């Protein structure tokens, strides 16, 4: 299964996001991971933000948590 995660703020997400994306702000990602996000460590995960910076941080956090198939798609404009 493919998961698409928008790591921008809720306000940015509300202004427009890629179809099917869930919003998990990068500053809340570690908390969500420790609370047991419903993701299998082998599932494909794509993260994005406005320009790719926060998505890079999110990718690193996910990989350190043991997720093996994480892609940084860069900015939201790359997905819309």
From TrEMBL:
One of its Pfam families is Rhodanese
The segment(s) forming the Rhodanese domain are: 3-77
> What PANTHER family has UniProt attached to this entry?
RHODANESE-LIKE DOMAIN-CONTAINING PROTEIN 15, CHLOROPLASTIC
Q: What protein is this chain from?
A: Rhodanese-like domain-containing protein
Give the organism the record lists: Reinekea marina
Organism placement in taxonomy:
Bacteria, Pseudomonadati, Pseudomonadota, Gammaproteobacteria, Oceanospirillales
């Amino acid at each position: 299964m493919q998961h698409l995660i928008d790591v921008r703020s809720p306000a940015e997400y509300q202004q427009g996001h890629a179809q099917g994306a869930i919003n998990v702000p990068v500053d809340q990602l570690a908390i969500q991971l420790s609370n047991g996000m419903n993701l299998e460590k082998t599932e494909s995960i794509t993260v994005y933000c406005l320009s790719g910076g926060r998505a890079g941080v999110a990718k690193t956090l996910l990989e350190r948590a043991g997720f093996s198939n994480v892609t940084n798609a860069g900015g939201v404009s790359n997905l819309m």
